[in-house]
Amino acid sequence: MPNIVVLVKQVPDTNAKIAVSGNRVDLSAVKMVMSPYDEFAVETALQHREASGGEVTALTVGGAGCDKILKDAKAIGVDRIVRVDAEGEMDSNALQTVLAKAVTELGAEVVYCGKAAADTGAGSTGPGLAERMGWASVSNAIGASFDGGLSVIAPSGAGNAKLNVPLPAVVSCDKGDFKVRKPNVKGIMQAKKASVDVHSIDAPASSVTVTSHSLPPAKPAGKTFDGGAAAAEVAQLLRDEANVL
Amino acid sequence: MTQTIVIAEMNNNAVHPSTAELVTAAMAIGDAPTVIVPCTDASVANGAANMGAGTVIAAKSGAFTHYDAGGWAEALDAVAPPGTVITGASPQSKDLAARIAARRNLAVIQDAVAIDGNSITSPVYSGKAMQTVSISGPAVVSVRSNVFAASSGGATEASVIDTDGNVATSVAEFMARASERLDVGEANIVISGGRGMGSPDNFVHLESIADTLGAAVGASRAAVDTWEAIPHAMQVGQTGKTVNPSLYIAVGISGAIQHLAGMRSSKYIVAINKDADAPIFQHADYGIVATWEEALPVLHTALKSMLD
Q1: I need a labelling partner for B54 at 20 to 30 A (CA). Which of A143, B110, B197, B306 fits?
Q2: Does domain B4-162 have CATH number 3.40.50.620?
């Protein structure tokens, strides 16, 4: 019965506008949520438990404010919720070192995570953690099955491939075929009572520091035309002005 | 100067031309790079000639038969000298970048769009903001395509080094993509439809223009969520694919933040929408206020007469 860990991260709601004040993003007015791809990871972890038994632990790294997404994971059905207490920015090297220690402490045999966090969009955590653990990894999985060992469907060349994945392993999840379950009343009640298991792990110093944030450069105003007949003129402009045809 | 290494971007066992852009990116950090070509047949590495490399290494191994992140990272790490490693920013290359970085206990910075010595800029929050970081010491950096100019000249021949890595995963079967169409993530031109298309059946009009242009067909999240016939693989936006084509044509798409996040870095944007106040027009180089029924036939005829 595998000990399953799912990594979750708190990020700004993907529908939120991002403001920059000074030279840093200002998230004070933004609602924070579980990164959307992590929901597919939670779903996959729960399906794995349903197929093979075992226990699912949701793990995050951050301050006490991140307990909410752990409780959200609990409401959906994970067994345990764990937070490694941390404040401030960490580079990928520091974060993955902390996660590797936590995953070792938890005795995990398989780790699921989202294909990328919605804030950084980097997608480094899953493969980086796997490398540190000396485990196999598959990224961007769009389906998984658990009969006779783990196999996942992931993009490969011009199509997809069904890959057999020996455990221990890290699998990062894309939207794909995963239908995310919603919490039921019982789950929500249990989540309210659940306590977060807080771990403290030393992080190595970061070699990457954020120096500034800015808004993307505004595009110069475009040309607007009225009526469908203008499409012929636009086609000409695409060739003669934009040079993209 | 910092020593730099470029892992060649591969496509169908051939060196992808965007590798020459990675060389330019590497030279914004340090010296002319060592370009390493992962291959099973060393002659493939000739594809990296005249891309501005200091040296080209054909890293030859059976481990490169199918993509396995761990096996590839191990086999490439064994061949690569120390220094800052540059990769492409395709999903596979970002995955590889993360594993190589972890293997070397280095930090990884993904999706770089500007590099100035130790200062590297990438989009964050799906392009709603840009983040500049400073790196101390070597790192691994993945670089977006279509941002840096291609480099040329330099090494013309590859030296061959045999290497190996432990491939943990095995392919049970290859599955053709549900659609034969070009993937939105790879196409140089993308034409996308939103809920304004009225019905998934009307996407056939986008497909015929796509065929004329050699374009991929994409969709907004609203379209994907509303119509089962429009698969998630087509979705452009924050929870779908981020695209960076030369030309993006948005049809019947209002331009929700979510969608803009996935396509705003396209070089040219054309918007067709019947609502003159749709936010997409603020991001369009060329906006056409019209229904798709009015605009698409005219556009298609004009493109056909131009390109045929």
Answers
A1: B110
A2: yes
